[in-house]
Design a protein that fits this description.
The chain has 67 residues and is mainly alpha-helical. The longest helix is centred in the middle third of the chain and has 25 residues.
C-alpha cells in the first residue's frame, strides 16, 4: 500500500486565519456588501413589480413597529 500524504494540519491553518488583520477582514466584508447591494439593485431593476411590493411591505412593517 503506497504511503498517503498526511492530511493538512488544521491547527496551523487556524493560526494563519488568526494572522489575518482586522483591516483585511473589513476590506473583504466591505467588498462583499458592495457586491450584495449591486445585486439587489440589479434584481430591483429587472423585477420592478416585486421591488415595489417589497418596498410597500417594508413600509407597512415600519409603520406597525412599536418601540
Amino acid at each position: 500500500m503506497p504511503d498517503l500524504p498526511e492530511p493538512p494540519d488544521h491547527g496551523s491553518r487556524a493560526d494563519a486565519s488568526e494572522q489575518e488583520t482586522d483591516a483585511e477582514r473589513r476590506r473583504r466584508r466591505a467588498q462583499f456588501l458592495r457586491e450584495l447591494a449591486e445585486a439587489r439593485e440589479l434584481r430591483d431593476r429587472v423585477q420592478p413589480r416585486r421591488a415595489k411590493a417589497a418596498r410597500l411591505r417594508h413600509a407597512m412593517r415600519m409603520r406597525t413597529f412599536r418601540w
